[in-house]
Design brief:
It contains 5 helices and 5 strands, in the order βαβαβαβαβα. The chain is an alpha/beta fold. It has a single domain, classed as Response regulator (Rossmann fold). Helix 4 links the parallel strand 4 and strand 5. Helix 2 packs parallel to helix 3.
Length: 119
């Protein structure tokens, strides 16, 4: 079973994503954070296999956190999360920075699970 951390400043979105991930026997959400700083801290504490990281958050956004995570823990897999309107150039930048994939809100449970399973 792969350990997953969900990082999103919206508690409702984080809970929704956590519920989808936990519905699959392949994964378990071990922690939740609200910004990029939390993502870095939780990565060091939890040693997850995958981090689902929102692109737009206060304090430290997801793209900045992704850059830091790639330097600190190049082995951790990061899936960026964004609202449907926020894809485009940010998708390309996220992949260039080392994200494995990007998933869009609102979530399609099947797409979320398939994305995580292919990592």
């Amino acid at each position: 079973m792969k350990k997953v951390i969900v990082v999103d400043d919206s508690i409702a979105i984080a809970r929704q994503l956590e519920k989808i991930i936990n519905s699959c026997a392949d994964f378990t959400v071990t922690a939740r954070g609200r910004n990029g700083t939390d993502a870095i801290k939780l990565n060091q504490q939890e040693k997850p296999d995958i981090i689902c990281l929102d692109m737009n958050m206060p304090i430290m956004d997801g793209m900045t956190a992704l850059r830091n995570l790639r330097q600190i823990s190049p082995e951790v897999k990061v899936v960026m999360v964004t609202s449907l309107g926020g894809v485009g150039d940010k998708y390309t930048e996220a992949i260039r920075l080392g994200a494995c994939d990007v998933i869009s809100k609102p979530f399609d449970a099947d797409i979320v699970i398939k994305t995580l399973q292919k990592i």
